[in-house]
Description:
This protein is α+β, with helices and mostly antiparallel strands.
Amino acid sequence: MPEMTIGSDTRLPFMKMHGLGNDFVVVDARDASWQITPPMAAGIAHRQMGVGFDQLAVITNGTEDAHLTFYNADGSTSGACGNATRCVARYLMQQTGRSALRLTTDRGLLLAEDAGKGLTAVNMGQPQLDWQDIPLAEDVDTLELPIEGTPTATGMGNPHCTFFVADAELIPLAEFGARYEHHPLYPERTNVQVAHLIGPDHLRMRVWERGVGITLASGSSSCATAVAAVRRGLTGRNVQIDLDGGSLWINWRDDGVWMTGPTCHVFDGTFTRNFLESLGS
Length: 281
């Protein structure tokens, strides 16, 4: 798809959505003749000079119902974004009247369903547990990494590093997350989670997302944390995770890791020609 040429009548519509405060700009580009570029994504992400988001999701036509491409706030791409996938799935379900969808991403095929009571579920696929698939820089035990605090490594289409701690609220996450995002064991950087057990099958988690920073919630991080908790014998496979923005329900089933939670379509907008030109588009 060619890059966008700015003309006098150029307008770029978008939607602002969030899942538990994990916020997204969503662009429906299925009928567009242009494409989002990394510099555009980073400019849109700026919370003073753009719109602001944790991730940008671009909807295009694909081999299934739609294809989703994700950008982080720094303009880098991500293979998966669970909460954004749920938001887009809810939008497409309302648009088509369907209760189930098949969406493709760089992570692969993701199935989405209406879970009832306003909730949307998405199957994030099976977790990647081998060091090469996550990926890590060397062959190590992914259950207990040779890092202080022995975190667990998990791939969910993007890399994760989960620390189980006594009290996640006491971790200085801004400094902690920035330090481990760039750990040399993770050649593509990593999302960082800190979590503690509240009760049976119930976790409290806080998250630092690579290329973004602290976010109120993260779907793929929640999936990774639930998988890590199961592997370490802390919980069963059906887990409630409480994040800063609310709760998600993660169920690691035989067919993949299902994530269920609410979504919100906040508003629709249009990027102006002046703004797009300021990004060098």
